[in-house]
Amino acid sequence: GCTWEFGAMVNYIKKTYPQTQLVVVGFSLGGNIVCKYLGESQANQERVLCCVSVCQGYSALRAQETFMQWDQCRRFYNFLMADNMKKIILSHRQVLFGDNMKKPQSLSDADLSKLYTATSLMQIDDNVMRKFHGYSSLKEYYEEESCLQYLHRIYVPLLLVNAADDPLVHESLLSIPRALSEKRENVMHVLPLHGGHLGFFEGSVLFPEPLTWMDKLVVQYANAICQWEKTKSHCSDTEQPVSGQE
């Protein structure tokens, strides 16, 4: 959920191309980052035409319980992702935790050693990541870094896409985008029955189409928003004030 790096990139683009308007798209965890970034400040939404979030879980705090369940092999996916996260952190441990780096006081060498035995993302987050970012508890870390509390502050058109058979995003989490779309006119929630986690393949199993349904949806939605913005701007430019006499 850390948005400073993404924000730096966006600000650079805005500064370099001052006439450009942006379409913001995030996939999985990236969906959490882009939604949190937009909701953190009204200024972050300036020159943003719309936002698309695909297959995110919205609340890490609510997702942690479901991530330990075995249905749809969710616990196994948790193990695989934790193993991959360990490899990434350990391969850059000198840069992240080397002698020249100032580590948070709450992060000890013993915590780093627990990376080798971690079997879930929650263990890594509790022993390393939340301490690295200065949080006193895993609950606080998950609450503050999830986009859940920021979604209602997004005022640009927002498309939230999930799949009913996503093995990583439990169905209980889908009440979040559903409720938001019912309350906010700028929010649309799309929930196809099939798609898995960032799958959405079309065609046969052995020979799927090169472009997925997800690719087409993002492009078509962004194109529709751009056309709507263009038409709105054109109408505003051509409207003439009507004056009357009494």
UniProtKB/TrEMBL annotation:
<dbReference type="InterPro" id="IPR000952">
    <property type="entry name" value="AB_hydrolase_4_CS"/>
</dbReference>
<dbReference type="GO" id="GO:0043401">
    <property type="term" value="P:steroid hormone receptor signaling pathway"/>
</dbReference>
<keyword id="KW-0719">Serine esterase</keyword>
<feature type="active site" description="Charge relay system">
    <location>
        <position position="197"/>
    </location>
</feature>
<feature type="domain" description="AB hydrolase-1">
    <location>
        <begin position="2"/>
        <end position="203"/>
    </location>
</feature>
<dbReference type="InterPro" id="IPR029058">
    <property type="entry name" value="AB_hydrolase_fold"/>
</dbReference>
<keyword id="KW-1133">Transmembrane helix</keyword>
<dbReference type="GO" id="GO:0046464">
    <property type="term" value="P:acylglycerol catabolic process"/>
</dbReference>
<keyword id="KW-0735">Signal-anchor</keyword>
<dbReference type="InterPro" id="IPR012020">
    <property type="entry name" value="ABHD4"/>
</dbReference>
<keyword id="KW-0472">Membrane</keyword>
<dbReference type="GO" id="GO:0036126">
    <property type="term" value="C:sperm flagellum"/>
</dbReference>
<comment type="similarity">
    <text>Belongs to the AB hydrolase superfamily. AB hydrolase 4 family.</text>
</comment>
<keyword id="KW-0378">Hydrolase</keyword>
<protein>
    <submittedName>
        <fullName>ABHD2 lipase</fullName>
    </submittedName>
</protein>
<dbReference type="GO" id="GO:0097524">
    <property type="term" value="C:sperm plasma membrane"/>
</dbReference>
<dbReference type="GO" id="GO:0051792">
    <property type="term" value="P:medium-chain fatty acid biosynthetic process"/>
</dbReference>
<dbReference type="InterPro" id="IPR000073">
    <property type="entry name" value="AB_hydrolase_1"/>
</dbReference>
<feature type="active site" description="Charge relay system">
    <location>
        <position position="166"/>
    </location>
</feature>
<feature type="active site" description="Charge relay system">
    <location>
        <position position="28"/>
    </location>
</feature>
<dbReference type="GO" id="GO:0047372">
    <property type="term" value="F:monoacylglycerol lipase activity"/>
</dbReference>
<keyword id="KW-0812">Transmembrane</keyword>
<dbReference type="InterPro" id="IPR050960">
    <property type="entry name" value="AB_hydrolase_4_sf"/>
</dbReference>
<dbReference type="GO" id="GO:0008126">
    <property type="term" value="F:acetylesterase activity"/>
</dbReference>
<dbReference type="GO" id="GO:0048240">
    <property type="term" value="P:sperm capacitation"/>
</dbReference>
<dbReference type="Pfam" id="PF00561">
    <property type="entry name" value="Abhydrolase_1"/>
</dbReference>
<dbReference type="GO" id="GO:0051793">
    <property type="term" value="P:medium-chain fatty acid catabolic process"/>
</dbReference>
